[in-house]
Amino acid sequence: MIYSMTGYGKSVAIYEDRKICVEIRSLNGKAMDLSTRMSSQFKSREMEVRSIVTSKLERGKVDLAIWVEHGEKVELPSINAAVMQAYLSQMTEISNQIGVALPENVFEVLLRMPEVVARKEVYEVSDEEWAVVLQCLDSAIDELLLFRKQEGEALSKKFCDKISNISSLLASVEPYEKERVEKIRCRIKEALDKTLGVDYDNNRFEQELIFYIEKLDINEEKQRLSNHLSYFLSTMEDGIGQGKKLGFIAQEMGREINTLGSKSNHAEMQNIVVRMKDELEQIKEQVLNVM
Fold it and tell me: Residue 169: which domain range?
């Protein structure tokens, strides 16, 4: 079963008076492209988090966010009134000395002065809390992987339908092949009669005709395309990590379909080729999302 690279997961855990939240989402990408946003107290553990996410998700453009929501008892920043008063006294004294009035927004200026507002320092994360964070991270990743699996099942069904359509279109080419040969024979013979207006060696004509028709023979292309279709289906059954391989197979399918089109030399066959290209293009668009 194939997996999609598109996924989303979120997990929440409670530790003491804090709520730890982990949110992770992924989109398609050729390699692992991980962006992280973490609360400042977890920054020192970022490399550990990156290692876990990379090992479990392998590929894709991944956005990870880890943050903490505090309870009602959280300490708010406090204003040091004594320090503010000291600044104001000095500013008033200097103002009188140099004859410059205090600014109208003096209170706003004072709040920006050093040590007036005491902010709560970032607390040190204990091993117990970090274990909760890792458990929360694992839960979010598991949810994302489940999402990827469900998306992969939908992609698998779509691919099977498209492969079946191409196979049916390929089979529909056969009736026109014999008709094409007879039309080519008549067209060349008619052109010779009108252009030359003389007798010619029928045996030589048949030999040259066979040589010409052999150049337009599409049996090899049909066989190779059929093999590619089967190979695509069997590769999907190999499971995770087949996205790039499926992309290469789709490219080979496109080469054979293009050759069929260039050799068809028949209006209805060319119409069939266009329809096959349309089905294949939809496969190529979606195969970019496969792990």
Answer: 151-287
Predicted confidence (pLDDT) per residue in 147-185, tens digit: 999 999 999 999 999 999 999 999 998 888 777 766 766
Q: Answer yes or no: is 1 within a domain.
A: no
Mean pLDDT of the region 227-247: 89
Residue with tokens 């398609």: 28
Domain count, the chain: 3
Predicted TM-score (pTM) of the model is: 0.69
At 42, the amino acid letter reads F
**Average pLDDT of every residue of the chain:** 85
